Amino acid sequence: MGTIAVLGAGKIGEALLSGLISAGKSAEELLFTERHPERAAELTERYGIASVGVTEAAKRAEVLVVAVKPQDIEPLLAELAPLVGPGSLVVSLCAGLPTTLYERRLPDAVPVVRAMPNTPMLVGEAMSAVSPGRYATAEHVRTVEDMLRSVGKVVEVPEAQQDAVTALSGSGPAYFFYLVEAMIDAGILLGLPRAVAEQLIVQSAVGAAKMLAQGSEHPVLLREAVTSPAGTTINAIRELERHGVRAALLAAIEAARDRSVELGRAHEA
Ligand SMILES: NC(=O)C1=CN([C@@H]2O[C@H](COP(=O)(O)OP(=O)(O)OC[C@H]3O[C@@H](n4cnc5c(N)ncnc54)[C@H](O)[C@@H]3O)[C@@H](O)[C@H]2O)C=CC1
Ligand SMILES: O=C(O)[C@@H]1CCC=N1
Asked: GO: which molecular function terms (predicted)?
């Protein structure tokens, strides 16, 4: 895999660097660029990883991982264009941005892989999906998959599905955090101390996630096993249905997908 440079070390850039360090990658094989010097100093202090300019990153790294906001992509691609060639490997983590954007802005035949991870990279539990661009070979995809597999699980999807992936698993952790936050509030409503409510809900989330990850039973069966006849859970389910929570989730994730498409369209020219 060689040296990996993260271009733009914000939340997802840090999650990747931190996850790779935890997975045993040495700080010497990692680099990052960051336009805010205080942020760069903070990360070097925390992980011992060198902050460099984009020229040095392109010279020293085998893999260049783009992790700036989609709105900040154009100046970065302009900087990168004279520094990369067919022997480079560019990985885009940016929501909505198609590989064709990179292929148009960078010189001919630069291999690009679009990948969508999520923040659980920080704890080695990411879900990532990868899609090769026009010039990326199976070997390039394997390199990116190996990198992302060291911080979680990976699937390959056709690039046309990446906006849906972004809405589902890229943003997905936020939906679970939101749900947990709301459930803790319910504990407060029922008069529980906040610390107790937090422990009850977080551990219930961990337990439920472990059961789901085992995959031996479908989520519907797991939910039915908690839902006793004339019991407490069915009363709660009735309220969730009455308030349209399922429809709200479908609409929310569809809206996230639409925003991903829109972020890509902003760079169509
Ligand atoms: N936050 C998340 O959970 C996920 C984010 N992503 C994608 O990752 C990208 C970054 O997202 P976040 O980390 O949340 O944003 P962020 O705003 O926390 O990080 C972006 C970083 O890039 C830096 N930056 C911008 N332009 C630069 C340049 N030309 N050179 C060097 N540094 C530059 C900024 O100073 C900032 O620290 C986005 O495209 C997003 O779609 C993908 C998956 C999950
Ligand atoms: O909210 C966003 O745009 C990014 C992409 C996926 C997760 N966070």
From this structure: pyrroline-5-carboxylate reductase activity
Rounded to the nearest whole angstrom, what is the distance from the C-alpha of residue 226 to the centroid of ligand 2? 33
How far is residue 149's CA from residue 128's CA, in Å, rounded to a whole number? 8
Pick the closest to residue 70 from 258, 267, 208 (CA basis).
Answer: 267
Domains along the chain with CATH numbers: 4-159 (3.40.50.720), 172-261 (1.10.3730.10)
Size of the chain in residues? 269
8 Å CB contact between 176 and 269: no
Ligand showing the shortest atom-to-Cα distance for residue 15: 1
Instruction: Name the residue with the closest Cα to ligand 1, atom 29.
Output: 76
In order along the chain (269 residues), what is the average pLDDT of each group of 10 residues? 95 96 96 98 98 97 98 97 97 98 96 98 97 98 97 98 98 98 98 98 98 95 98 98 98 98 89
CB atoms < 10 A from the CB of 211, how many?
A: 14
Nearest CA-CA partner of 133 in 85, 90, 71, 78: 90
Measured CA to CA in angstroms, residue 124 lies from 117, 134, 149, 246 at distances of 11, 29, 9, 29
